[in-house]
Amino acid sequence: MKTTERELKRAYRKYIQNSPGSRTEDCPAPEEIWSLFAGETPGKRKAGMVEHITACSSCFREFEAFLEMSRAEENLANEVRPHLPSQMRAAPLPLVWRYVTAFAALIVILAAAMLSTKWLGLIKRPEERGRLSGQLRLLSPGPRPILRVPLIFRWEEVARSEYYIIEIFDDSLLPFWKSPQLTGICYELPSPVKEKMERGKSYFWMLTAFSQGGQKTESAPEEFRLID
To answer: Where in the chain is CATH 2.60.40.10?
Structure first.
């Protein structure tokens, strides 16, 4: 039976996620991993960290934890915004966050401390959260360069899921775009979003399926690049 490149990649990701792993002196500090989401990491350092995170099971789990925190921050900012003075509601997210900086900083400090101590072993492994790549399979786009138009995301259906959400990250793993709630098993990226993407540059997309009772299943990130 012929083994495809996609199957090899999926097996590799499953191996990385399942590897027990432990931090080494080459691993970036938790604060450095968090800085990827804050856009504070120099370009060369970003590239090295991204390469390390995708190969290190310990750092990959830390990255997943910080990704959840980043989403929580965005949700909290959106909840705070309606309670701000009317002249500030249209302010960009960084300005709004001046009013919740203390809370966000406390989260980061506590998480960094937790992830850098023996408590790291108590965090649920990916397979315990139902997030192994084999449980939510992305079909396209993939690593092979694709034409800019049209850009259609496809995935395998997850049984009993109510809706899906697509997230796109740039080559530094910073959030680039997030979809509304989707039904079905494919979605064409809106033209305004697509036009903002740079040709030849790597992006990553991942999918989250939400089911009744608040249960969710995530895919592993999949790399793709656009060409004219």
So the answer is: 130-227
Residue 55 CB-density burial (10 A; 0-12 exposed, 13-18 middle, 19+ buried): exposed
pTM over 0.70: no
Domain 130-227 in CATH 2.60.40.10: yes
List strand residue ranges (DSSP E) for 24-150, in order. 138-140, 146-147
d(CA 168, CA 222): 9
Paired strand residues for 205: 168, 222
Q: What percent of the chain has pLDDT over 90?
A: 19
Q: CA torsion angle for 81, 84, 86, 90 (degrees, to 10)?
A: -30
pLDDT value at position 153? 95
